[in-house]
């Protein structure tokens, strides 16, 4: 292989790692997948280090005059198990020699082009909230309130994109808006106060960082304490922001209801 070929392999491996980290994959899984792709170079030195915010890759051997090192920073993350599965399968296909490195790169590029549309994402969010309301024994009025809460939540997603809010601010703002408006609607339609519990728990489900929390423990149990603790702290911060938003929303809504 030429130097250009080795660099191309590292670029493809880096691209695969970035997709997995941005999809909230466990760091040990990212390192395993990237290392699997790099092994097709047949070079003895393969070093991969992944954490929540960065990916570091080094490839070296007697065929290279100097090590090839790539460093990439991870600036955005979302939970997407589908992308994680596809990238992991591509890496296995490469090592099994069922696809070439060029075909693998084309498949990796195609992953971002086949994401779900905003309309599908919005409908899924609404159905998720309504499903939890039904699961918690909500009546028709509570289902209606949950539908309104889901619409409000979708509106806050647009605020996040427009103002480029971080996870803590977004969690606080989204739950603040929902926890302010829903109690007022409950008071207007004459629903009992405990209806708020069903509605707010249901609308919190799409926001709860369950995957990040689970991945943090999995990384920790694998011995990767740095990335594991980072993911757990990230999940706890998001959980605190949700609680803070609900508390502020209740405080504001009670003041408005008592004033009216």
UniProtKB/TrEMBL annotation:
Compartments, record wording: Cell membrane
Residue ranges of the TM segments: 120-137, 168-190, 196-217, 229-252
Predominant subcellular localization, coarse grouping: membrane
Keyword terms of this UniProt record: Cell membrane, Membrane, Transmembrane, Transmembrane helix
GO cellular component, one term: plasma membrane
Topological relation to the membrane, as annotated: Multi-pass membrane protein
Annotated Threonine/serine exporter-like N-terminal domain residues: 12-252
InterPro entries cross-referenced by the UniProt entry: ThrE-like_N (IPR010619), ThrE_Dicarb/AminoAcid_Exp (IPR050539)
Stored Pfam families: ThrE
GO biological process, one term: succinate transport
GO molecular function annotation: transmembrane transporter activity
Origin: domain of life: Bacteria
Membership in a protein family: Belongs to the ThrE exporter (TC 2.A.79) family.
Protein name per UniProt: Uncharacterized membrane protein YjjP (DUF1212 family)
Organism taxonomic ancestry: Bacteria, Bacillati, Bacillota, Bacilli, Lactobacillales
